Amino acid sequence: MWGLRSTRTLVIAAATVVFVVCCVLPLASMLAGTFSGRTSVGSTYAALLLDPRQRRLLFNTALLGIMTATFATVIGAPLGVALARLELRGKAILRVLLAAPMLLPPVVVGLAWISLGGDTGLLTQLAGRDLLSTWTHTMSGAVLVLTLVLYPVSMLATEVAVRRIEPRLEEAALIVARPGRVVWHITLGLAAPSITAAALVIFVLAASDFGVPGLLRVRVYTTEVFTAFAALYDFGRGAVLTLPLLVISTLVAAAAVALAGERLITTRRAMSGRHPPLFDPWKPAAVAAASAMVLLALVLPLAALVREVQGVRSWAEVVAGSGIAIRNSLVLAAVGATLTVAVGLGLGYARARARGTVGIIADLACVVLFAVPSTVVGVGLIGLWNRPGVLGTVYGTDAMLVLVCLARFLPLAVLGLAAAVRHVPYSHEEAAAAAGAGWARTISTIVVPQMSASLVAVWVVVFVLAFGELGASILVAPPGEATLPIRIYTMIANAPPANVAALALLQSVVILSPLTLLAWGLTLREAR
Amino acid sequence: MTSSYLRLTGITKRYRDRVAVEDVSVDIAGGEGIVVLGPSGCGKTTLLRLIAGLARPDSGEIWLAGQLASGAATFVPPYERQLGFVFQDLALWPHLSVGKNLDFVMKAAKAPKAERRARAEKILSLVQIEQLSNRYPHELSGGEQQRVALARALVGEPRLLLLDEPLSSLDADLRAMLRLELRQLQRALRLTTIYVTHDREDAAVLADRVVEMRRGRIIAVDQAKPQEPS
């Protein structure tokens, strides 16, 4: 099956070419561009990076990442432990509700935050006095919004890590130590690498975010890169400014991979027995904390948008004015998600069956590329495709937005699908091969049917992320062909807040609909 | 030997509609080496977990050193029973070195730092792995891991040592050697020991008495034929 001309080799080679073209070449060409064709590259870097204003940018970016990672971990990790180890009624739906903020575009949550904490916001109305308006457009506000969006990353990583702890290890400790000591030294000790890796990923995602700092007027590298393009039309300056971001993201993502190791794509393993009830005394506190987070991170932002939307004079006008953007977003996200899953399946299969160094390098590449900030991806895509010739014919078309989807989310899809393939024992493929089936037939009739739920889940996640993508899309979108997030972002400055909130709410509904269906399905399954 | 160090009276444990242990009663004297023998699924591991306090009996009583440990209205948690437990899969904590595996046990017992170091050295020397203190479990061979698990169980100076088929994953030669060492240790320390196995050779070497189980019940309690370590 592994011959040079075998179907498997051809499929994986083709998928690898797509991966390299979409995810690697844009960055490589951008980096090559910044180091060549300039007479004074060194002085350009020195001028840009040693300037006190740039150091301030670096400080702000690091602060945003560190504070968000800290708060998101402090909130997310205990919730993850609770989901992993407490018997809770309706746990499946609670998990979906707690994870939902992660899929809402950060800029939408940022808008909700403004409409919640502004001087005429919901909190001001409820409290009868202005509580937060001076705090809304600050670094603290950006940290709060990104914490609310990113804590599920820590929660889900911790849940997986704590679930995977062998019950015997805790029982062995319980023989000699009290539950509190067992939790601290054994349970959390064993989960610590995953929790730390998740914190590092959150750091990268927060430092890479463009929408929230842009909206709340916090100056960080991503907003500076955008300004270099959108306001100054200076590709060289923008490209150079991406370098510190790229270096930080790469180093932190590599550290996360080193900590997570094989856990990155291992979903489950056989456990001997049940976990001891170490956490039961904390059940009431956990239920209260989980309910508070659903309220704070999901219900309150949506309620603030709903309240703001009441000022809309005509829904028909709002929707009609953004009809093309809505259609573009839906179609392009669906096409992008489908292509991403198709390519990701080939690469995910290759990763799942790879061992040793090859596997580690593949994981590292995927995590580092997923961690590349959206604005950096946008700059890279412009550098690669905005040139005369065949490539130039693609630039200026909607295909660029599909390429954004592939460039940003293919690495994530590869990791998700690799985990799903890993769950199908290799012996199943060997049995099919022994029965005379070729690789394509084995994949379509043996492997894919066993991972169909994961395929759907990855498609939905990529669709949702692509539907909310802003940082790269706003740089490469053809003139007049905006997507919904771009339309919302550009309307903020010059449209009534009610109309902006209406579109943000619409975007949230589209994103949360599949999640609601998923929660409903899980509830039915739990009831059975 | 002193009389009745551990007493089980009418112990029954069900998991849903399956009876794991049914009406088990047995008296074990201080310093005695008991081997619980039986096929897989006969309830011997469950019995060990009930004695350790890792599971609660549905009915019956467990008395430890004259004190009620499990009863209708009483349940002493495992960490207050002063036990050592060697699990079938050893359950060495993979994120802690050998020394730290032992230290966790002694810190939990609030032993002073100087005493902890001395005790760890003594126990590691007793099981002949004093050079492995800084190694992690995954860096050890199967036999070394076995010795670490035993050291960890002994370092807390338990009143009762429970062993759940700890030699089952080893090859025959190593298994034979370790069970002899285990027997010598048990005798040297005069430790009350309950050893669960399905292997009659283990029983012949390790037991003062053999308790045979089938389908959750004790079917025989025999005085083992004395077999001195060769």
CATH architectural label of the largest domain in chain A: Orthogonal Bundle
Helix content of chain B: 25-40%
Order of helices and strands of chain A: HHHHHHHHHHHHHHHHHHHHHHHHHH
Uncertain parts of chain A = none
Superfamily (CATH H level) name of the largest domain in chain B: P-loop containing nucleotide triphosphate hydrolases
Please report the first level of CATH classification, the CATH class of the largest domain in chain B: Alpha Beta
CATH class of the largest domain in chain A: Mainly Alpha
The overall strand count of chain A is 0
Biggest interface, which chains? A-B, 19 and 22 residues
Total beta strands of chain B? 10
The span between the termini of chain A is 41 Å
Concise synopsis of the structure shown:
The complex is a heterodimer of chains A (528) and B (230). By secondary structure, chain A is mostly helical.
Describe what this molecule looks like in 3D:
The complex is a heterodimer of chains A (528) and B (230). Chain A is mostly helical and 528 residues long. Chain A has 2 domains: 1-37 and 315-492, MetI-like fold, CATH 1.10.3720; 55-305, Orthogonal Bundle (MetI-like fold), CATH 1.10.3720. Chain A is 78% helix and 0% strand. Chain A contains 26 helices and no strands. The longest helix of chain A is centred in the N-terminal third of the chain and has 34 residues, at 52-85. Chain A is globular, with a radius of gyration of 24 Å. Chain A starts with 6 loop residues before the first helix and ends with a helix. The model of chain A has no long low-confidence stretch (mean pLDDT 85). Chain B is of the alpha/beta class. Chain B folds into 2 domains: 2-82 and 159-222, P-loop containing nucleotide triphosphate hydrolases (Rossmann fold, 3-Layer(aba) Sandwich); 91-150, no CATH class. Chain B has 6 helices and 10 strands; from the N terminus they run βββαβββαααβαβαββ. Chain B has helices spanning 44-52, 98-108, 113-126, 142-155, 172-189, 200-206, and strands at 2-15, 18-30, 33-37, 59-64, 67-70, 83-86, 160-164, 192-197, 209-214, 217-223. Chain B has a 6-stranded mixed beta sheet, with helices on both faces. The mean pLDDT of chain B is 89. The interface between A and B is medium-sized, with 19 and 22 residues.
